[in-house]
Write a structure and sequence with these properties.
It is built from no helices and 8 strands. By secondary structure, the protein is mainly beta. The chain has one domain: Sandwich (Jelly Rolls), CATH 2.60.120.340.
Length: about 100
């Protein structure tokens, strides 16, 4: 079991990035912070499901993070093998996922 930092990345423009995958026989409760480090607003997407998100996997879709702004989602419960995927329309978004895992 892990707790604390579960994944982080500086997102590449227009690219789905798998940030965290729940290990086998485990469930996870995670918090997600996405920070816009640029001087322009950037649209972001966030999904929980598979590495290639289906429409039903999105929990944020083209949500605008203003210049130097933050998007935070907390208390997200993820099942075994689910993948948290992030995407930004432009460079300048950093993401950090933290929380804890427990045996299912």
């Amino acid at each position: 079991m892990a707790s604390g930092l579960l994944g982080k990345a500086a997102l590449t423009a227009a690219t789905n990035t798998s940030i965290y995958t729940v290990p086998a026989a485990t469930v996870a409760t995670v918090n997600v912070n996405m920070v816009n480090t640029s001087a322009a607003s950037i649209a972001v997407r966030l999904s929980i499901g598979t590495a290639v998100p289906a429409t039903a996997d999105y929990i944020e879709y083209d949500t605008i993070i203003p210049a130097n702004g933050v998007l935070e989602r907390s208390g997200l419960v993820m099942s075994t093998a689910e993948v948290l995927v992030a995407r930004a329309e432009a460079a300048g978004i950093s993401i950090r996922v933290y929380g804890f895992e427990e045996v299912a």
